[in-house]
Design goal:
This protein is an alpha+beta fold. It is built from 20 helices and 24 strands. The strands form six sheets. Strands 2-1-5-4-3 form a five-stranded antiparallel β-sheet. A five-stranded antiparallel β-sheet has the order 7-6-10-9-8, sandwiched between helices. A five-stranded mixed β-sheet has the order 12-14-15-17-16. Helix 9 packs across helix 17, helix 10 packs across helix 16 and helix 13 packs antiparallel against helix 16. It is elongated. The termini are far apart. About 2% of the residues have low confidence.
C-alpha cells in the first residue's frame, strides 16, 4: 500500500508524453484529412471549372491580371489560354466595356458584385456576341480574387428576337388567328380576329368558338371538323359565322393541331380570312358574265328571228289589204299581225338586254324627258297609285336615245305598279351623283365620274334576296302566268349598260323597292328636244328605190310594199346583182335600201361603191341585227339612216320619207 503513490509519481511523466504524442498524431491526422478534403475540393472545383458551360475568368483583385480562364471562355472568345492569362483586364479589348482602363478597373475592385444582364462582346474573329456577366470577390489563400462568370446568351437573345418578330407578325397579320386549348377554349386571338368578329380580346378569352355559330351549318358539319383536328389532321374549309352585332360573314379557315415533343396535341391554331367582300364581288362578276353570255345568245338569235318575223308581218299586212273587213279571214290576219308585232317587241327587248339594240343617242335634259312621259305613266299605273315626281334642279345632261328613256320608265313603273296592292305610291326622282376612286374600288364595275341619277321607288311588297339575285335574268318573273314576259328589268339592265351606266336595286320584303340608275353626264350643253314620229302613212312620189336583200322572201315582200307606197323598185338578191342593175339603169336612183350583212360585200361597202355612180343617192340600211360595220357596239354613227327588222309598212313608209327629205 505504501508503494502506490510513489509508483504513480514515477509513471506520470511517461503518461503525459504518450498523451501529447497521441494528441499530436490526432492533429496530424486531422490536418491530413483537411488537406485531403481541400485537395478533393480543389479537384472537384477544377473539374467544374474545366467542364463548366459558362465562361469563367479569374482576376487578381489587387493587380487586375488574369489568373485563370476556363476552356469554355477560351473557345467562346477565340483566344488561346496563354493569350489571356497574365494580361491585365484593361489590355484585353474584348472586355473594353468592363474595364477600358486601370482607373475603370477600380470600379470593378470596389464593387464586390457586378451584374450585366446583356453585355455586348466581340470575339477575336470580330463576331459580335451577347453575354450575361456576373462578378464576385472571393478570399483565396489570404488574397482576394475576382471571379467573373460569363454566360453566352446570343442564341437565347436571337430566339427572343425571333419570338418577338413572330408575335408582331401574328398581331399585325391581316388574317384572324385563334389559339385554343385541347378542349377548344380560346387562349389567344389577334387584333384581326377582333376586327373580324367584333369581340374584344378580353370578351373572347376562355370562351369557345361556338359563340360564332351562325346556324348555317348542321351538327354533322361541326362533328366532322372536330373529328379531323382531334385526330391530328388539319381541317381547311369555308365557314359562315356570326359577328357580335349579329351580322353574318364568310371566312376561309384552316385549323391545325399543335403537338408537343412527344406528339401529343396541346393546342389548336386557326387562321381565318374574311372573304365576305370577295364573295360579293365574285358574285357580281359572275352575274355580269352570265348576263353577257345570255346577251350574246339573244343577240345571235335575233337576226334570223327578225328576218322571219319581217316576212310574217309584211305578208300578213299585204294580205289584210286584200280582204274585206267583214270576212272571217280579216280577223285571222289581224290576230297574226298582232302576234307578229308582239314577237317583234320581245325581240327588241332581247336586243336591248344584249346591248345590241340600234340606238341614236342625242344630248337630253333628263328632267324634261321624264316630264314629257308623266301623263302616259299615270295612265299606265292607274288611279289608285299616286305618282310623285321629284326632279333635281340643275341636273346634268345625258346622251342617249330618248326612246330608251321611255323604255326604262315604262318598265320600271309597270313593275312598281304590279308590286303595289291597292292604294300605293310610286316616286320618280333625279339628282346629280359623283363616284370617286374610293367608291369605285369597293363597287365592282363602277367607273369614277359625274352621273345623273334616275330613281324609281315604290311602297309595294318588296323582294327577298333569292328574287334579287335573278331580277335581271331574261324571262325571270314572279308574276302569274300570262302577266309578264320576264323581260322588263332585263331590258332596263341592257339599256343602262349600253349607255355605260350602272344600276343598283334596294329592296326588302314588305318595305318596297328602289331602283337607282346612274347615267354618265354629258359635257355638251346642246340639248335636243325629242319629237314623236308622224302618224299618217306618207306615200312615195314615183322615186326609184334600189332594194338589196339576200333573203328571197324578204326581197319579194319589200318590193310589194314599196310599189304599194308609190315607188319605182329595182330589186337585187346580192351586192353584185345590185351593182349590175345600177350600171344598167339609165335614170336616177333616189334611194338605196340595203341589208347590212350579205355575202360578197356588206351593205356599207356597197353603198359607198354605188354612190360613186349616183352621188346624190340616199342610203337606208336595214337589218335584223345590229352589225358593227355600221354601228360600233350598237351605236349608230351620225348621219347613218337605219331601220330595224321586222318593220311594218307604216314604219318603212315614214322612214323612207324622212331619208328622202334630208338635205
Amino acid at each position: 500500500m505504501t508503494d502506490t503513490p510513489i509508483a504513480n509519481q514515477l509513471a506520470s511523466p511517461d503518461t503525459d508524453l504518450h498523451r501529447q504524442i497521441a494528441l499530436l498524431e490526432k492533429k496530424l491526422h486531422q490536418e491530413e484529412a483537411i488537406r485531403q478534403t481541400l485537395q478533393d475540393s480543389e479537384k472537384r472545383y477544377r473539374r467544374l471549372f474545366e467542364s463548366a458551360r459558362d465562361g469563367i475568368l479569374i482576376l487578381d483583385a489587387e493587380t487586375g491580371k488574369v489568373v485563370d480562364v476556363n476552356p469554355f471562355l477560351v473557345q467562346l472568345l477565340g483566344f488561346s489560354y496563354d493569350e489571356l492569362c497574365g494580361q491585365f483586364i484593361w489590355e484585353l479589348g474584348v472586355f473594353k466595356d468592363i474595364a477600358a482602363s486601370q482607373e475603370a478597373f477600380k470600379t470593378l475592385q470596389e464593387n464586390e458584385y457586378i451584374r450585366y444582364e446583356d453585355l455586348p462582346l466581340e470575339t477575336r474573329a470580330g463576331l459580335p456576341i451577347a453575354v450575361e456577366f456576373v462578378s464576385n470577390v472571393y478570399l483565396v489563400d489570404h488574397g482576394k480574387v475576382i471571379q467573373c462568370n460569363i454566360r453566352d446568351i446570343t442564341a437565347r437573345k436571337r430566339a427572343d428576337a425571333e419570338r418577338k418578330r413572330l408575335q408582331a407578325a401574328i398581331k399585325q397579320a391581316g388574317e384572324g388567328i385563334v389559339v385554343t386549348d385541347v378542349k377548344g377554349n380560346i387562349e389567344f386571338v389577334n387584333p384581326a380576329f377582333e376586327q373580324m368578329t367584333g369581340y374584344s380580346h378580353n370578351e373572347i378569352l376562355g370562351r369557345n368558338p361556338r359563340i360564332l355559330k351562325s346556324g348555317k351549318h348542321d351538327e354533322l358539319f361541326y362533328h366532322e371538323l372536330w373529328e379531323t383536328i382531334s385526330s391530328g389532321r388539319t381541317w381547311a374549309g369555308r365557314l359562315v359565322n356570326k359577328r357580335k352585332d349579329g351580322n353574318l360573314y364568310s371566312e376561309e379557315t384552316t385549323i391545325s393541331p399543335v403537338l408537343d415533343a412527344s406528339g401529343h396535341i396541346v393546342n389548336y391554331v386557326a387562321v381565318k380570312r374574311d372573304i365576305t367582300e370577295q364573295l360579293r364581288l365574285a358574285a357580281q362578276f359572275q352575274q355580269a358574265q352570265k348576263m353577257e353570255a345570255v346577251g350574246l345568245l339573244a343577240g345571235g338569235v335575233a337576226h334570223d328571228y327578225n328576218n322571219m318575223l319581217s316576212v310574217i308581218l309584211g305578208y300578213a299586212e299585204l294580205a289584210l289589204e286584200k280582204v274585206a273587213p267583214g270576212e272571217p279571214l280579216h280577223t285571222d290576219l289581224e290576230i297574226i299581225i298582232t302576234a307578229a308585232k308582239r314577237s317583234a317587241a320581245i325581240t327588241r327587248q332581247l336586243l336591248a338586254f344584249a346591248r345590241k339594240q340600234t340606238i341614236v343617242p342625242v344630248v337630253l335634259d333628263l328632267n324634261k324627258t321624264v316630264e314629257s312621259m308623266l301623263d302616259m305613266l299615270r295612265r299606265l299605273i292607274g288611279e289608285d297609285i299616286d305618282l310623285a315626281w321629284l326632279p333635281k334642279a340643275n341636273l346634268g345632261s345625258i346622251k342617249m336615245d330618248p326612246t330608251q328613256v321611255d323604255q326604262i320608265l315604262a318598265n320600271l313603273c309597270v313593275n312598281a305598279r304590279d308590286a303595289v296592292t291597292g292604294i300605293g305610291k310610286i316616286t320618280i326622282e333625279t339628282r346629280n351623283a359623283v363616284f370617286d376612286a374610293a367608291y369605285c374600288a369597293d363597287h365592282f364595275g363602277f367607273v369614277e365620274g359625274a352621273y345623273a341619277l334616275l330613281a324609281v321607288s315604290d311602297d309595294g311588297c318588296g323582294m327577298n334576296k333569292e328574287v334579287l339575285d335573278h331580277i335581271f335574268d331574261p324571262f325571270f318573273t314572279t308574276k302569274g302566268e300570262g302577266q309578264g314576259t320576264g323581260l322588263g328589268l332585263s331590258t332596263v339592265y341592257g339599256i343602262v349598260k349600253q349607255n355605260n351606266g350602272f344600276i343598283n336595286v334596294y329592296s326588302e320584303p314588305g318595305k318596297g323597292t328602289t331602283i337607282k340608275i346612274y347615267l354618265p353626264q354629258h359635257l355638251d350643253n346642246a340639248v335636243i328636244t325629242w319629237q314623236s314620229k308622224a302618224l299618217d302613212i306618207p306615200l312615195g312620189q314615183g322615186e326609184t328605190v334600189l332594194v338589196v336583200e339576200d333573203e328571197p322572201a324578204l326581197l319579194m315582200m319589200a318590193q310589194t310594199m314599196l310599189r304599194k307606197l308609190g315607188y319605182q323598185v329595182l330589186a337585187a338578191g346580192t351586192p353584185g346583182a345590185a351593182i349590175e342593175l345600177a350600171k344598167e339603169h339609165e335614170s336616177e336612183i333616189h334611194l338605196l335600201l340595203t341589208d347590212v350583212v350579205m355575202p360578197e360585200m356588206n351593205g356599207r361597202d356597197l353603198a359607198e361603191w354605188l354612190q360613186t355612180l349616183y352621188p346624190g343617192m340616199k342610203i337606208l340600211f336595214m337589218s335584223g341585227y345590229t352589225a358593227e360595220v355600221i354601228a360600233h357596239r350598237g351605236v349608230l354613227k351620225a348621219g347613218v339612216n337605219f331601220i330595224q327588222k321586222p318593220f311594218a309598212t307604216k314604219d318603212l313608209a315614214i322612214k323612207i320619207r324622212e331619208v328622202l327629205q334630208e338635205h
